[in-house]
Amino acid sequence: MVLSSILSKSSLSICLKNFVCVTSTTTKGSIRSRHTRALPSTVLSKIFGSNKGKPFGKDVTAGSDLQKAVNFVSPCLREELLCKTSEPVRDCCHKVSIVGAGMVGVAVANALLFQRITSHIAIVDAFPKKLEGEGMDYCHCSGLIGDPKIEYDTDFCITSNSKVIVICAGVRPLKGESRLNLVQRNTEILKNIIPPLANYSPNGVFVIISNPVDILAWVTWKLSGFPVQQVIGSGTHLDSSRFRYMIGNRLGIAPSSVGAFMIGEHGDSMVPLWSGVNVAGVQFRDIIPNIGLETDDEKWYEIAQQVVKFGPMVRCLKGYSNTAIGLSAVDIIIAILRNTQAIIPVSTLVQGHHDVCHDIFLSLPCSIGENGITNIIRMHITEYEKKLFQSSANIVYNTQKDINIKS
What we know:
Layout: H1 9-17, H2 25-29, H3 43-48, H4 58-61, H5 65-69, H6 77-81, E1 96-99, H7 103-114, E2 120-124, H8 128-140, E3 149-153, E4 164-167, H9 183-200, E5 205-208, H10 213-224, E6 231-233, H11 237-251, E7 258-259, E8 262-263, E9 271-272, E10 278-279, E11 282-283, H12 284-287, H13 301-318, H14 323-337, E12 342-349, E13 361-369, E14 372-376, H15 383-400
Parallel strand pairs: 1-2, 1-4, 2-3, 4-5, 5-6
Antiparallel strand pairs: 7-10, 8-9, 10-11, 12-13, 13-14
Helix pairs in contact: 1-9, 7-14, 9-10, 11-13
């Protein structure tokens, strides 16, 4: 979701705290809400008892005294058609809630629904018209994408019992503004939304996409009171995908066949791990010992420099970036919902790793399952890469230490 930059702190707080329901009874009915009352006796059973006898039609009763005596009331189609045997499950075990119906939130919803990863999503946004338009659009095509349950509202109550809560809410960076400059503005938004979300889904896993993602993941952890493994920042997962793409494109092979990671901050100080780049187990540094350094005659280091610029470049060209980040976020969600223990570079608490002493979130390769992060990989990196990682940690901490997360 992109909240208008013209909203003041006070008006934003009022907007978020005083939500109003935008989905009518008719709309909620269109997303498979059920009546809960018992099936009543029909008019026919009152007249004929348990044995209805001959079919009841206009040819049978036309002009008869019975027709004149009975003031026939048309039965409810739903109650006549459906004989309930049990109560439907309100929230399925793989429910995903998306906070923010902006371009990124829509990209996440598209990836989840079109790939049929979950059959239950809930979308929350502070702007009713935009939210209702997006929600209706999904509901109208639900029969074409596996009949998922789709909910949308300005009230956080629809996120209850979520397995994953995706945070896309935030303000856009201004022209020339870095991710780190966004931090206090977006922290104010999280103060209003994280506590109620945590209360509604105490066993859920937060996946943070809003920027600056490393600091906002840390803020979410502090505000939610969740165990650290239940808060995951999307981190450098997309950056690592871009890194693999550039290497594969230069070699003429599939990006998925390249093993490569970016770690550290999701931002200008991210660290390319050239020491671990490989194809089919063949380490690049065994062929070019100084690969990734400025002394490399083939200038492979230029690829990492391009990766850092790709996010701003995409936003400059199309006005926003959403498709790639939506898919990379859903890759993390899949690991949670399916308990795959996939290794993904995501933002987590790195205190104690690679001699980082600060209480901060940065990206390292982690295994992810249904309870969130289960392991952090102990990377064997060079001293040069270690220094770059520590420098990245210092940049994030120097901004984070001035944040006020108290209400």
